Amino acid sequence: MRRPSPGLTPEGLPCLGLLTIFALCFALLGWGVATLVVLILLALAANFFRDPERVVPQEPGLAVSPADGRVVAVEQATDPITGEARVAIRIFMSVFNVHVNRAPVTGKVAAIRYHPGKFINASFDKASEGNERCALALTDDAGRSWTVVQIAGLIARRIVCLADIGDTLARGERLGMIKFGSRLDVYLPEDYVSKVVVGENVLAGQSVIAAAK
Does 119 lie in the same domain as 27? Predict the structure, then answer.
């Protein structure tokens, strides 16, 4: 498991470094407007690639949000790995949200499946099957199966998965990120129920989204 350092995600450092170089060069050349534009882009990029620490709930029988964002659906859907009908919680991340993804529960990574695809708006239902995505199957301490799906969006062009098959992730531990506007889906085992509603804003690793019955 490759663990990024807190503060800023390593995946954002090349972008931040390039923008910093441009800002310095434009400033030295006396190009005030161009320097200002690049500094604004640098501030936006730093905001996007931030990686804050979170207070993870420690009570048993809880699942936390894998992403910052807004709940856009809580519905029955077909699990892309097991093929079973399960409750799916779908969380949309705008470009203004933290895009670091976290494990909803403590568990071992049993499978990872990457699917190339399109880049339509991640808030649409058809994004679950048509967009580029990466599905992770987690097996928790009780043997229950969880599926977490990273879905690219209209602007997103890269899914980063830091986990490998066989890794054991703690609840709230970083597992990857998606660059620029995207969605996370969590498929619950049958003995868990959703604790969120459509329209609710959640924080990765901190907000409780489901609990054992």
Answer: no
Q: Looking at the structure, do residues 132 and 38 belong to the same domain, yes or no?
A: no
Q: What angle do CA 97, 64, 145 make, to 5 degrees?
A: 120
| 182 carries an active-site annotation | yes
3 state DSSP class of 206 = coil
| C-beta of residue 22 within 8 angstroms of C-beta of residue 38 | yes
Asked whether residue 112 falls in the same domain as residue 163, the answer is yes
d(CA 133, CA 114): 6
Cα four-point dihedral sign 172, 175, 176, 177: negative
Query: How do residues 107-160 score in pLDDT, each as one tens digit?
Result: 999 999 988 765 555 455 544 556 688 999 999 999 999 999 998 866 555 788
The answer to whether residue 41 is domain-embedded is: yes
Q: How many residues does the chain have?
A: 213
In the three-class reduction of DSSP (H, G, I as helix; E, B as strand; rest coil), residue 191 is classed as coil
Q: Catalytic residue among 65, 123, 145, 182, which? A: 182
